[in-house]
Inverse folding.
């Protein structure tokens, strides 16, 4: 799903960028009184975007301007929806677990995230942990963000995360591998004074 969304985003952004570049370049060329094609509606700096005849075209029909405003409103709402979708991260809803008898069970992604967060936050020197699952149901990936106490060693925290919390999740879900991206940050604290 995320690969398809990325491709659609690239195509839409490419088309929008091409359209804006060509249109903006042509308008700029007309505004600077540079030569423009004969079919281009604006040929000089004194031309206007909508002529008086264009603005008054819909006055005979009472439906014209409400339809124009409604269509523009729908375009704006679709653009806002598309923008909000860009910030939503694709989270894995469920993970397939091999039960060992040839069948598969399904574990909710949020449940596995919660267990991983609890295991990671319980380790020494970790103030807070945030885990999100991505990837496919049969091959999940994790993103772990650890907020470390000032005294914690990042190397030790990362080692404990991989040998305990991630190892427990991997073995309990029967996964051959659990690729993980870990981000470590330290808790903001005031410097201690030495007297």
């Amino acid at each position: 799903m995320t690969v398809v969304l990325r491709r659609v985003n690239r195509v839409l952004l490419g088309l929008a960028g091409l359209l804006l570049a060509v249109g903006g370049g042509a308008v700029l060329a007309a505004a600077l009184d540079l030569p423009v094609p004969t079919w281009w509606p604006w040929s000089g700096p004194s031309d206007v975007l909508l002529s008086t005849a264009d603005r008054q075209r819909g006055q005979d029909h009472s439906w014209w301007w409400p339809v124009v405003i409604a269509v523009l409103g729908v375009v704006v709402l679709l653009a806002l929806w598309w923008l909000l979708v860009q910030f939503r991260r694709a989270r894995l809803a469920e993970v397939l677990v091999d039960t060992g008898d040839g069948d598969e069970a399904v574990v909710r992604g949020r449940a596995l995230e919660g267990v991983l967060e609890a295991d990671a936050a319980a380790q020494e020197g970790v103030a807070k942990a945030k885990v999100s699952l991505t990837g496919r149901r049969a091959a999940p990936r994790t993103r772990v963000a650890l907020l470390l106490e000032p005294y914690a060693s990042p190397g030790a925290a990362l080692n404990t995360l991989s040998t305990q919390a991630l190892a427990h999740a991997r073995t309990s879900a029967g996964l051959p591998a659990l690729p993980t991206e870990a981000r470590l940050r330290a808790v903001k604290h005031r410097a201690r004074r030495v007297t």
Helices lie at 2-31, 52-56, 64-87, 109-122, 154-172. The radius of gyration is 28 Å. The chain has a mean pLDDT of 82.
